[in-house]
Specification:
This protein has 176 residues and is of the alpha+beta class. It has six helices and four strands; from the N terminus they run H-H-H-E-E-H-H-E-E-H. Strands 2-1-4-3 form a four-stranded antiparallel beta sheet. The protein is globular, with a radius of gyration of 20 Å.
């Protein structure tokens, strides 16, 4: 009986200590009541991405092939409508819709989907999941040309960090 009481007290102490350590490690959440001087993520929309440029963005499959990461790639225009898509051999089928969702969210909200992931995971802003057409998973990046959003790319099939690396490689083709 004493052993059970000791074990329960030990588990409770470890749980409290772990919770306190986790709370200290987390960065403080931004103040949601603060009124910024400038509108965040206010990059203007430009003309929609052309098909040939969207297909050039999809050429980032070369980076995925080099790394051996089978992924799905979606490029949407500035409205979030599909312009080009590629599914690599061996990429998981569920990632078809996820890649498109990431691209659409990045285009319509004018920000990388990593911003939503950070808001939910790091700061606990669960309200973000109530916004229409949001996906809080990295791997969606707006495509910016001449300071204007022309579309977005979404990658899915690997871990969030793998998806992000491939999206960054894909987005980098816009400046070339």
């Amino acid at each position: 009986m004493k052993l059970r009481i000791f074990a329960a007290a030990f588990v409770a102490a470890v749980t409290c200590f772990a919770g306190a350590a986790h709370a200290q490690a987390q960065a403080p959440a931004p103040d949601l009541n603060a009124v910024p001087d400038k509108m965040p993520f206010n990059t203007p929309f430009g003309p929609p991405i052309a098909m040939n440029k969207a297909q050039a963005v999809i050429a980032a499959v070369a980076e995925a092939n080099k790394r051996g990461w089978p992924e799905d790639f979606a490029v949407v225009d500035n409205h979030g409508d599909l312009v080009a898509f590629a599914r690599m051999d061996g990429a998981q089928l569920a990632s078809i819709a996820i890649a498109l969702h990431k691209a659409r969210t990045a285009a319509r909200y004018r920000r990388p989907t990593l911003a939503f992931e950070t808001g939910v995971q790091k700061f606990g802003f669960n309200y973000l999941s109530t916004l229409d057409d949001v996906i809080a998973s990295r791997g969606g990046i707006p495509l910016v040309q001449d300071g204007k959003i022309i579309g977005a790319v979404g990658c899915s099939g690997g871990t969030g960090s793998q998806d992000q690396v491939l999206c960054e490689a894909a987005a980098a083709t816009i400046g070339k």
